[in-house]
Amino acid sequence: MTASPEDIFDKLCELLIPFNKNGIELKPDTEFSADLSIDSVSVMDFVMEVEDHFDIDIPLNVLGDTHTVSDLVKVVESRIG
Amino acid sequence: MPVEATAKTAVSTESGRDTVELLPHLNTGLEKRLGDFTTLIEGLEYAARGVTGVNFYSPRGALEAAVTYAELRDRAKATAARLINAGLKRGDRVAVVAETGAKFMDVFYGCQYAGMLPCPMPYSMHIGGREAYAERIAGMLASAAACAAIAPDDLIESIREAALKAGTERVMTHDELAAIDTQGAELSPFKADEAAYIQYSSGSTSHPKGVLISQKAITTNCRDILRHGMRVMPDDRAFSWLPLYHDMGLVGFCLSPMMGQVTVDYLSTPAFARRPVLWLKLMSDNRCTIAYSPSFGYDLAARRINGGAVDLDLSQWRIAGIGGDMVRSDVLDLFAQNLKVSGFDARAFLPSYGMAESTLAITIADVDEPVRTDVVDKAMYKARGRAVPASPDIAGDPEKVRSFVVCGRPLPGHTVKVVDDAGAELAERAIGRVLARSDSLMTGYFNNPEATGDALLEDGFLETGDMGYMLDGQIVITGRRKDLILHNGRNIWPQDIEWAVEHIEPLRDGDVAAFAGENSDGTDSVIVLVQCRSKDKGEIEDMRRQVSATVNRTSGVECQVVMIPPRSLPFTSSGKLSRAGARQRYLSGEIAEINAAAPAEVPQRMAAAG
Q1: Rounded CA gap, A43 and A29, in Å?
Q2: N- to C-terminal Cα distance for chain A?
Q3: At what angle do helices A69-80 and A40-54 cross, to 10 degrees?
Q4: How high is the ipTM of this complex?
Q5: According to CATH, where is 3.30.300.30 located in chain B?
Q6: Cα distance between residue B570 and residue B534, in whole Å
Q7: Residue A65 · residue B149 · CB < 8 Å
Q8: Rounded Cα gap, residues B166 and B172, in angstroms
Q9: Strands of B319-322's sheet, edge to edge?
């Protein structure tokens, strides 16, 4: 599968819709914990959606360093690449 | 004990097999022995004579590794030799990240053969939470005065960072450890009168306390669990997604099964959190008979199962244990209802009570009895500290009654009593401090005589820190003691406030902390911290009003509601809310109101005094 960073960003935004309960506008620098405030169980739910969609695995340590949506775009890019 | 004979078999069997074969649960030709051993090593050596062992599943449910207890024994002996050749000494503390896998077990049992104390460390991380993780590990390493830390590749950087802070000199990945020669090391396993391991399930995340467990305590508790609690049978098969750094995962689903030659199928905790239904599917596939979970795990699985239950067969599941948090009967009902079509029998639910300070188990309900719920009069419970059965005319009114799940009789050899503040034993149905005594109690908190003195009383009883009452010889837990709020002569349990507030949409479990503040005249005020995900000032103030109204409605007290950022509440490493920690952080200003524009809410009496 080839996907540009823009494609990945768009897809992540789509996958985030059910978790973005406050309807925050999603930008590359939107932070998961501070801006979206997803709790830890929902995060796992979202990560599973991302893993299943892109058919990748995201290990714990990588997750620990992922703060923003654009961080996650990079993670997905490197994992599918 | 020479190691040469076994060193050559130490190569991982995971890579040696093309396809992994699921290990069986039946040991033909080997007599079942339920934990009658004096050390963990004695138990492992016996289990190694059979064909049972541990199976590990990937996050997507594929069988990734199968390691028999015989292989585990060989690997552990080789690991022991490497730890010794690495320069570590007998009695040294070896921190090891407890990821769900055979490599953690190699080190844990390897330490047993080398006479070193393994200290399992958490394997968990939130999104963007790397720094917090390193901080938490550093606290544990320092508390254990760990001589070495061993971690999987993916977490090694965080562990190095933590080790640097804590002064732990040696940090190794499993591969680095495996590269050390096994030749020439003389193993010296722990003897029956020695220590076994240090467990970090206790104390707040910022001030961790390591529970030191002896061989006597762990072997006694495993025997109690296997023989009297679960009454393990030859065809039992266990399943676990519980973290191995927590007492329920480590003692209940790693050490106890080994001491009873029981095969365990494992799914890692993060994998369970992502796909909770996989737990039930694998149990169905493998015909597993025993699994434990806190209430929230049953809740998660019940909510995610949707229509999938019809494809499962859980009719063989005979022990669905509940422990690790307050047992919630509403959750058990939901799970039983949603899984009924799979053949799941609600009689499998088995409430239990225990803690790391008692190795694990103190009471386990009767396997043959259904879950018993005690419905008590809320007014009597609050005003008099007595659990009086609700009369029929109020029994259906949730405002007037409180339901508690009965957690069973003390295991044989365990004594549980409920006492008042002066230490006098109370009659049945009177709520007081829960004390426990048995051969399973911890030796103490490692290197912490002060905390040990507070927990282990002179007459040999453990101050559990829990409040509860006895009912027909069984224990009922009502909450934590030290968190009690005294208000106008009434006892207010913060759990009650939190429980009520967490039911306000969109709040969740763990979003609320209630505790006592101090008025200028020395009386308690009630402070409620609420994690708020909204940034909209109108929404924040609306939530504040709802919380205040709810607390007033449920507990009849005025409270100060403080809206705080998400994830600022501290939790213990076993995942329980640390109210004392929350209180301390709030009073020190570390946690503060997010809506600075909000009118300063000064308790009236304070203002009057000022």
Answers
A1: 17
A2: 8
A3: 40
A4: 0.79
A5: 485-609
A6: 20
A7: no
A8: 15
A9: B63-68, B53-57, B264-267, B238-240, B290-293, B319-322, B349-354, B361-364, B409-410
- Rounded CA-CA distance A54/A42 in Å is 18
Which residues in chain B are classed under CATH 2.30.38.10?
372-480
Residues on chain B touching A15 (C-beta within 8 angstroms): none
Q: CA nearest A60: which of B594, B395, B243? A: B243
pLDDT above 70 for B356: yes
Between residues B538 and B418, the one the model is more confident about: B418
pLDDT tens-digit series, residues B249-297: 999 999 999 999 999 999 998 889 888 999 999 999 999 999 999 888 8
Residue B597 has pLDDT above 60, yes or no: no
The CATH homologous superfamily for domain B372-480 is Luciferase; Domain 3 (2.30.38.10)
Contact B517, B524 (CB under 8 A): yes
Cβ–Cβ gap B128/A57 under 8 Å: no
- Ranges of residues in chain A whose predicted pLDDT is under 50: none
The CA distance from A33 to the nearest CA of chain B, in Å, is: 7
Give the CATH fold of the B4-274 domain. Answer: Rossmann fold (3.40.50)
Establish whether the linkage from the previous residue to B506 is cis, with ω within 30° of 0.
Answer: yes
Is A64–B128 a contact, with Cβ atoms under 8 angstroms apart?
yes
Chain A residues within an 8 Å CB radius of B124: 60
- What is the distance between the alpha carbons of residues B448 and A21, in angstroms, rounded to a whole number? 45
Bridge partners (DSSP) of residue B480 are: B466
CATH superfamily label, B485-609? ANL, C-terminal domain (3.30.300.30)
Distance from C-alpha of B370 to C-alpha of B360, rounded to nearest angstrom: 22
Q: Which residues of A touch B (CB under 8 A)?
A: 21-22, 31-34, 37-41, 43-45, 47-48, 51, 57, 59-67
CA atoms of B92 and B49, how far apart (whole Å): 30
Alpha carbon of B568 to those of A22, B564, B577, B586: distances in Å? Answer: 19, 7, 11, 10
Mean of per-residue pLDDT scores for chain B:
89
Question: What are the start and end residues of each CATH 3.40.50.12780 domain in chain B?
Answer: 4-274
Domains and CATH numbers, chain A: 5-80 (1.10.1200.10)
